[in-house]
C-alpha cells in the first residue's frame, strides 16, 4: 500500500535541490561568519547572499532580516521583543482568537508580565472584522499581531485592511506569515507590515531555520543574550547549512509560485469532487474563495476526529486535525471553536488536508477514495 501525504501544512519534504545546496556548506563552509579570517569571510558571504534572497522575497531590505530557528522563535521575538522594548509607550496588545499557539501562548506569557491583551473574534468564515480591530485600539496599544493565513483552515485574513487601520497609529503590525510565505505575493512596504515571521520547513526547506522581518527603526529587545549576531537581535552562531538550504527553498518557490498555486488548487478541487462523487457528505470550514489553494478543512457529520485520524493512518493517508504543534492531539480545535458555537459538532469532526510537492492527481484521487471508504464505514 502506498502512503499518501496530505499534511504539507504541518511540514513539507525537503526539495532535493535544497539538500544538494546544503551539502557543500556542511563540509567545506565551516567557518564562523563572525570571524574576520578567510574562513569566516567565506561563511559571511554565504550568509549575506541568503539574507538578500529573503529580503527580496518580501520586498524588504537585507538589514531588516533576522535569522531564527523557525516560525515559533520569530513569533516570540516579534511579540515579546517588541512589547518589552516599547512598553514605555503602552502595555496593550491585540491579536486574534485563532492564531497559532506560537502567538497565543506568547500573548498569554505577556499577560503574566502585566501586559493587557485583546483577542479579536472571527466569524464563521474564519475572518476577523477590521471594524473590531479599529474599535479595540487604544492610545496604549503598542502591537497588533494577525496571522496572514490560518494554518488549520487556510483562510486569508484582511491584512491590507488591518494595516490601513494601523497606518496612523503608534502600534506596530506583526503577521505570522508561515503558511502564506511562498504562496502569496507579499510586499511588506506596500502593505504596511512592520514585522513578519516565516519558516523554512513549510516551503520544502530544512527544519530549524526561519526569519523575522523587522522594519528598520523598530525597537526590538533580544530574547537571548551572549553575542552580537543578527544585529544584536538574535545572538548565537548562525545555522549556516540551514540558512543556505532556506535560501534555495525560497528561490525555488518564488520562481514557480503561480504554477504551484494552480496545481494545489487543482488538487483541492479534485479531492473534494471525488468525495462528492463517492457519495460523501461534508462541509468546508472557512470560505474557499478567501483561502490559499493548499489547505482545505472538512467537516464529516456523524464522525469523530480520533476515529477518523486513526483509520486514515491505517489506510495510508496522512492528514491532521489541527496545527502542526498539536498534530498528535485530539483536543477540540481552538480555531474552529473560535469560528463556531461551543456545542457545534464541526469542532470535533473536522480534518485538515493540505497539498504539496508529494502529491499527484493520481494519489490525491486515491486518497479521496480511501477517505470516502472510511467515512462510509464510520457512519454506517
UniProtKB/TrEMBL annotation:
<dbReference type="InterPro" id="IPR020578">
    <property type="entry name" value="Aminotrans_V_PyrdxlP_BS"/>
</dbReference>
<keyword id="KW-0408">Iron</keyword>
<feature type="domain" description="Aminotransferase class V">
    <location>
        <begin position="4"/>
        <end position="364"/>
    </location>
</feature>
<dbReference type="InterPro" id="IPR016454">
    <property type="entry name" value="Cysteine_dSase"/>
</dbReference>
<keyword id="KW-0663">Pyridoxal phosphate</keyword>
<dbReference type="Pfam" id="PF00266">
    <property type="entry name" value="Aminotran_5"/>
</dbReference>
<keyword id="KW-0411">Iron-sulfur</keyword>
<keyword id="KW-0479">Metal-binding</keyword>
<keyword id="KW-0808">Transferase</keyword>
<dbReference type="InterPro" id="IPR015422">
    <property type="entry name" value="PyrdxlP-dep_Trfase_small"/>
</dbReference>
<dbReference type="InterPro" id="IPR015421">
    <property type="entry name" value="PyrdxlP-dep_Trfase_major"/>
</dbReference>
<comment type="similarity">
    <text>Belongs to the class-V pyridoxal-phosphate-dependent aminotransferase family. NifS/IscS subfamily.</text>
</comment>
<dbReference type="InterPro" id="IPR000192">
    <property type="entry name" value="Aminotrans_V_dom"/>
</dbReference>
<dbReference type="InterPro" id="IPR015424">
    <property type="entry name" value="PyrdxlP-dep_Trfase"/>
</dbReference>
<protein>
    <recommendedName>
        <fullName>cysteine desulfurase</fullName>
        <ecNumber>2.8.1.7</ecNumber>
    </recommendedName>
</protein>
Amino acid at each position: 500500500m502506498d502512503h499518501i501525504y496530505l499534511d504539507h501544512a504541518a511540514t513539507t519534504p525537503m526539495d532535493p535541490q535544497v539538500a544538494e545546496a546544503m551539502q557543500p556548506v556542511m563540509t567545506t563552509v565551516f567557518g564562523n561568519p563572525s570571524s574576520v579570517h578567510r574562513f569566516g569571510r567565506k561563511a559571511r558571504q554565504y550568509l549575506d547572499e541568503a539574507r538578500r534572497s529573503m529580503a527580496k522575497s518580501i520586498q524588504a531590505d537585507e538589514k531588516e532580516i533576522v535569522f531564527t530557528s523557525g516560525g515559533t522563535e520569530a513569533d516570540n521575538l516579534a511579540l515579546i521583543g517588541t512589547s518589552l522594548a516599547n512598553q514605555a509607550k503602552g502595555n496593550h496588545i491585540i491579536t486574534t482568537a485563532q492564531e497559532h499557539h506560537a502567538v497565543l501562548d506568547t500573548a498569554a506569557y505577556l499577560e503574566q508580565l502585566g501586559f493587557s491583551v485583546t483577542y479579536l473574534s472571527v466569524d464563521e468564515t474564519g475572518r476577523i472584522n477590521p471594524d473590531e480591530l479599529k474599535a479595540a485600539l487604544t492610545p496604549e496599544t503598542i502591537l497588533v499581531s494577525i496571522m496572514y493565513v490560518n494554518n488549520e483552515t487556510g483562510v486569508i485574513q484582511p491584512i491590507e485592511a488591518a494595516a490601513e487601520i494601523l497606518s496612523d497609529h503608534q502600534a506596530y503590525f506583526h503577521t505570522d506569515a508561515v503558511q502564506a510565505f511562498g504562496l502569496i505575493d507579499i510586499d511588506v512596504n506596500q502593505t504596511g507590515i512592520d514585522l513578519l515571521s516565516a519558516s523554512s520547513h513549510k516551503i520544502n526547506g530544512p527544519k530549524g531555520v526561519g526569519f523575522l522581518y523587522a522594519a528598520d527603526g523598530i525597537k526590538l529587545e533580544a530574547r537571548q543574550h551572549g553575542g552580537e549576531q543578527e544585529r544584536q537581535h538574535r545572538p548565537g552562531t548562525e545555522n549556516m547549512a540551514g540558512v543556505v538550504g532556506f535560501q534555495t527553498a525560497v528561490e525555488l518557490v518564488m520562481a514557480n509560485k503561480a504554477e504551484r498555486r494552480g496545481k494545489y488548487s487543482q488538487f483541492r478541487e479534485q479531492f473534494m469532487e471525488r468525495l462528492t462523487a463517492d457519495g460523501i457528505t461534508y462541509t468546508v470550514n472557512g470560505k474557499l474563495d478567501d483561502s490559499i489553494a493548499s489547505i482545505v478543512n472538512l467537516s464529516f457529520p456523524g464522525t469523530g476526529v480520533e476515529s477518523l485520524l486513526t483509520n486514515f493512518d491505517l489506510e495510508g493517508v496522512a492528514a491532521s486535525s489541527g496545527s502542526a504543534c498539536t498534530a498528535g492531539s485530539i483536543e477540540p480545535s481552538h480555531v474552529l471553536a473560535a469560528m463556531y458555537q461551543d456545542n457545534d459538532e464541526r469542532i470535533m469532526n473536522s480534518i485538515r488536508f493540505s497539498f504539496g510537492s508529494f502529491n499527484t492527481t493520481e494519489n490525491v484521487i486515491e486518497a479521496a477514495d480511501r477517505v470516502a471508504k472510511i467515512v462510509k464505514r464510520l457512519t454506517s
